[in-house]
TrEMBL record:
<dbReference type="InterPro" id="IPR003439">
    <property type="entry name" value="ABC_transporter-like_ATP-bd"/>
</dbReference>
<dbReference type="InterPro" id="IPR017871">
    <property type="entry name" value="ABC_transporter-like_CS"/>
</dbReference>
<keyword id="KW-0997">Cell inner membrane</keyword>
<protein>
    <submittedName>
        <fullName>ABC transporter ATP-binding protein</fullName>
    </submittedName>
</protein>
<dbReference type="Pfam" id="PF08352">
    <property type="entry name" value="oligo_HPY"/>
</dbReference>
<keyword id="KW-0472">Membrane</keyword>
<keyword id="KW-1278">Translocase</keyword>
<dbReference type="GO" id="GO:0005886">
    <property type="term" value="C:plasma membrane"/>
</dbReference>
<dbReference type="InterPro" id="IPR003593">
    <property type="entry name" value="AAA+_ATPase"/>
</dbReference>
<feature type="domain" description="ABC transporter">
    <location>
        <begin position="5"/>
        <end position="269"/>
    </location>
</feature>
<dbReference type="InterPro" id="IPR013563">
    <property type="entry name" value="Oligopep_ABC_C"/>
</dbReference>
<dbReference type="GO" id="GO:0005524">
    <property type="term" value="F:ATP binding"/>
</dbReference>
<dbReference type="InterPro" id="IPR027417">
    <property type="entry name" value="P-loop_NTPase"/>
</dbReference>
<keyword id="KW-1003">Cell membrane</keyword>
<feature type="compositionally biased region" description="Basic and acidic residues">
    <location>
        <begin position="339"/>
        <end position="346"/>
    </location>
</feature>
<dbReference type="InterPro" id="IPR050388">
    <property type="entry name" value="ABC_Ni/Peptide_Import"/>
</dbReference>
<keyword id="KW-0067">ATP-binding</keyword>
C-alpha cells in the first residue's frame, strides 16, 4: 500500500502555569491511501492536539520535534500560506460539534457557496483569470453543486436545507451538513473528529454509515478520532491506541479485537458496553499530569500489571505480529505463547 500520511516522532509542548506540559511525546503512525484508520483514546490523551498539528492549527513553537509527511512533503516545513492552500483542497476536517462549527448567521447555502468560491479561485492561475479563458462558475452553478452534495448526504429536502439557518435544523441534519461541507472540496484526506458523538446512538450510527459509504465511493483516506473503541471498530481498518500523548498499540482492527495486548487497550475493550451487561468495566484512575509525567511507562499508575521496571525503563514499541505493535514491558522478548498465558491468568 502507498503511504499518504506519516507522522514521525511528533513532540508537542505547552507552557502552563505549572511548567512545561509534554502533551505529545513522540507519536508515530502511518495512513495509507484509501485507508480508514482511527486514533483512539480517552479525552485529554492528545488526539485533538495531534490533529491540530496535522491541520497546522498550533503555534509553530509548540511543536518541538517531529515530521508530518503528507504525499512526501513535510507539512511542518511549509509556510503558513502553502499550508493553508493545502488544507481544504487536499485535507478536510469534520469537527465534533456541528453547532459551533457552522456559522449561525449564514444559511447553509451561503456557507457552502463560500467554500466552492474559495476553492474555485485557488484553482485558477492569475493569467487564466486575466485572460478569462476559464469559465468562472456562476452562483447558479455553485447552488446546483451544493444542493447535489446535500442530496448525497441523504438530506431529503436539500433545497429547503440549503436556504435554512443552522438553528432551524436538527442535530443529525447539522452533522450531515458538516459532512457535505467537508466533502465539497473533494479532499483526498479527511479527518473526522468524533463525528456523531453529539447525537443519539441511532442517529450517530446512521451518520457513521453514511460517512463510510461516501468515503468508500470517493476512495478518500480517513482518520477517525474517537474515544470509543466500539466506534473505531465499526468505521476503521486500522487502529492506533493513544494514551497520555503516546501511541501505545497499533494493529489492524480485526487483529486488535482478536488479540488486544496493551493493558490499556484491554481496559478500553472492557469498557465497551455490551448488550448483556449494559455498562462496561472501565479503567480506574486518571491521565497523568503532563507537567510531571511518569518517568517511564505513562500508564504505570493505572496498570494492574505494573512492576518496578515499568517506572524505570521506557517501554518502546515492539512488533508482536505483522502490523501489530505494542509498547509494554509485558511483551519484552517473550514468545507469543508466554504472553498469552500471562494475559489469560488475569
Ligand atoms: Fe503496565 Fe508495565 Fe506494560 Fe506499562 S509497561 S502497561 S505499567 S505492564
Ligand atoms: Mg477531542
Amino acid at each position: 500500500a502507498e503511504t499518504l500520511l506519516e507522522v514521525r516522532n511528533l513532540h508537542v509542548q505547552f507552557d502552563t502555569y505549572d511548567g512545561v506540559a509534554e502533551v505529545i511525546n513522540g507519536v508515530d503512525f502511518t495512513l495509507n491511501r484509501g485507508e480508514t484508520a482511527a486514533l483512539v483514546g480517552e479525552t485529554g490523551c492528545g488526539k485533538s492536539v495531534t490533529v491540530k498539528s496535522i491541520m497546522g492549527l498550533l503555534p509553530a513553537a509548540e511543536i518541538t520535534a517531529g515530521e508530518i509527511i503528507y504525499k512526501g512533503q513535510d507539512l511542518l516545513e511549509l509556510s503558513d500560506a502553502e499550508r493553508h492552500a493545502r488544507r481544504g483542497r487536499e485535507i478536510s476536517m469534520i469537527m465534533q460539534d456541528p453547532m459551533t462549527s457552522l456559522n449561525p448567521v449564514l444559511t447553509v447555502g451561503e456557507q457552502m457557496i463560500d467554500v466552492l468560491k474559495w476553492q474555485g479561485e485557488r484553482r485558477l492561475s492569475v493569467t487564466d483569470w486575466l485572460r478569462d479563458k476559464v469559465s468562472r462558475r456562476s452562483d447558479a452553478d455553485h447552488r446546483e453543486r451544493a444542493i447535489e452534495m446535500l442530496a448525497d448526504v441523504e438530506i431529503s429536502a436539500p433545497e429547503r436545507v440549503f436556504s435554512s439557518y443552522p438553528v432551524e435544523l436538527s442535530g443529525g441534519m447539522r452533522q450531515r451538513v458538516l459532512i457535505a461541507i467537508a466533502l465539497l472540496s473533494e479532499p483526498n484526506f479527511l479527518i473526522a473528529d468524533e463525528p456523531g458523538t453529539a447525537l443519539d446512538v441511532t442517529t450517530e450510527a446512521k451518520v457513521l454509515d453514511l460517512l463510510d459509504e461516501l468515503v468508500e465511493d470517493r476512495n478518500t483516506s480517513v482518520l477517525y478520532i474517537t474515544h470509543d473503541l466500539g466506534v473505531a471498530r465499526e468505521v476503521s481498518e486500522f487502529i492506533n491506541v493513544m494514551y497520555a500523548g503516546e501511541i501505545i498499540e497499533q494493529a489492524p482492527t480485526a487483529e486488535l479485537f482478536a488479540d488486544p495486548e496493551h493493558p490499556y487497550t484491554r481496559g478500553l475493550l472492557e469498557s465497551i458496553p455490551t448488550l448483556s451487561s449494559g455498562i462496561g468495566g472501565g479503567i480506574e484512575g486518571h491521565l497523568p499530569d503532563y507537567t510531571d509525567p511518569p518517568a517511564a511507562c505513562r500508564f504505570a499508575e493505572r496498570c494492574p500489571h505494573a512492576e518496578s521496571k515499568c517506572s524505570e525503563v521506557v517501554p518502546y514499541p515492539r512488533k508482536t505480529a505483522d502490523d501489530h505493535t505494542v509498547a509494554c514491558h509485558l511483551f519484552d522478548g517473550e514468545a507469543a505463547h508466554d504472553r498469552h498465558q500471562k494475559l489469560a491468568q488475569e
